[in-house]
């Protein structure tokens, strides 16, 4: 039985889906957001967000900002550490359950949570989503933003044979002493026996910790996380561990078929080196909305690859080198303030992996000449 008709159905209320709904609703479209979980729902994520992403919305995010990150600490497995200041207000941390719920609540859209989609059917005039309840809703277009495990993407013939990394994360309750020890700094741990890193991100009353293997699976993530957190004095006994797939970008592939478009993790738009996905999720949600508003989605895949995917393939090369040569990468990359500046600018969306590759010889030589004595905080932007 077919129910109400909409202009656009968005499946998934994460950053990509919420962004698409926000822009479509602002343009006067009738938007339905379908989220299988009850909102707000837990989402394993370190929760670091560049404020440049938040500024893409005419919205005050202060109600869901946990903490401002003012410093970044990079530590290698042998104990070497580099600490650098960030420009004021450059990065904040959020809890994804609150952040996602807040963002989708700002959209002029009908939101139905606790509503799984059982099937998708499309024809030349539109798309029909069949809900688990048996109800069918129809729209001119459908945006799939239902995450890394999007079975609906596979049902419409997209993202088949994908490969994902994996993360193991926890929200750790912290007393005042433990919060003060990590304060306003994000900590990254490199040189671990995985193609990724471990991390500690400060929140208002707890710490988000985790470890990720971005380019391959690891059978020892739990033991590795417990080992590294024990070294840092962070107790995991009271914390629940969550595993989460990480759909890193590995190749160009179709991201739309007919009137169905993929965005965010469902499109595999996770950075192969940083493991970061929120920035690209938001951008892809914007592009999906723009394609729908034009009434022509034929160029959507090409645009995503041009604006996001092509540079992530450069990032894939950086990731392969970094994980194959962790000591060299830490010494000549992380400990080189010129390289470090570039990576921080990359996270803020102010440069690209391709631009970094072109500048790499210059950065290495100049970094060696100055003996790593440059004040990075003066060079960030």
H/E element string?
A: EHEEHEEEEHEEEEHEHEEEHEEEHHHHH
Q: Report how far the terminal alpha carbons are from each other.
A: 56 Å
Beta-strand percentage?
25-35%
Task: Flag low-confidence runs.
Answer: 372-381
The largest β sheet comes out as: 8 strands, mixed
If helices are DSSP runs of H or I spanning 4 or more residues, what is the number of helices? 11
Written description of the protein model:
By secondary structure, the protein is α/β, with parallel strands linked by helices. Helix content is 34%, strand content 27%. The protein contains 11 helices and 18 strands. Strands 1, 2, 8, 9, 10, 11, 17 and 18 form an 8-stranded mixed β-sheet that branches. A hairpin with a 4-residue loop joins strand 10 and strand 11 (136-144). Helix 7 runs antiparallel to helix 8 (300-324). The longest helix has 25 residues, at 300-324. The radius of gyration is 21 Å and the shape is globular. The termini are far apart. The model is unreliable at 372-381 (pLDDT under 50).
């Amino acid at each position: 039985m077919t129910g109400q008709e909409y202009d656009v159905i968005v499946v998934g209320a994460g950053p990509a889906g919420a962004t698409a709904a926000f822009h479509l609703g602002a343009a006067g479209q009738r938007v339905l957001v379908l989220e299988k979980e009850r909102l707000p729902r837990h989402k394993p994520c370190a929760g670091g967000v560049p404020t440049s992403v938040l500024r893409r919305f005419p919205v005050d995010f202060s109600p869901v900002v946990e903490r401002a990150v003012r410093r970044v600490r990079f530590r290698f497995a042998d104990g070497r550490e580099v600490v650098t200041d960030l420009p004021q207000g450059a990065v904040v941390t959020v809890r994804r359950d609150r952040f996602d719920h807040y963002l989708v609540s700002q959209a002029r859209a009908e939101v139905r949570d606790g509503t799984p989609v059982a099937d998708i059917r499309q024809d030349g005039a539109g798309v029909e989503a069949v809900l688990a309840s048996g109800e069918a809703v129809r729209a001119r277009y459908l945006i799939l933003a239902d995450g890394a495990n999007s079975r609906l993407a596979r049902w419409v013939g997209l993202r088949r044979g994908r490969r994902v990394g994996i993360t193991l994360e926890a929200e750790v309750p912290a007393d005042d002493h433990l919060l003060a020890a990590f304060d306003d700094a994000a900590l990254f741990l490199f040189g671990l026996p995985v193609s990724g890193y471990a991390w500690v991100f400060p929140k208002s009353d707890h710490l988000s910790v985790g470890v990720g293997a971005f380019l391959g699976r690891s059978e020892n993530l739990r033991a590795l996380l417990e080992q590294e957190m024990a070294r840092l004095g962070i107790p995991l006994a009271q914390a629940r561990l969550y595993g989460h797939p990480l759909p890193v970008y590995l190749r160009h592939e179709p991201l739309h078929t007919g009137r169905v478009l993929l965005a965010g993790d469902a499109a595999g738009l996770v950075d192969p080196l940083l493991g970061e996905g929120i920035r690209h999720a938001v951008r892809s949600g914007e592009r999906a909305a723009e394609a729908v508003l034009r009434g022509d989605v034929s160029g959507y895949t090409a645009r995503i690859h041009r604006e996001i995917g092509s540079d992530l393939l450069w990032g894939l090369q950086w990731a392969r080198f970094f994980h194959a040569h962790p000591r060299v990468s830490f010494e000549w990359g992380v400990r080189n303030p010129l390289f470090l500046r570039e990576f921080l600018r990359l996270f803020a969306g102010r440069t690209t992996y391709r631009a970094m590759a072109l500048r790499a010889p210059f950065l290495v030589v100049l970094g060696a000449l100055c003996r790593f004595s440059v004040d990075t905080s003066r060079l960030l932007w």
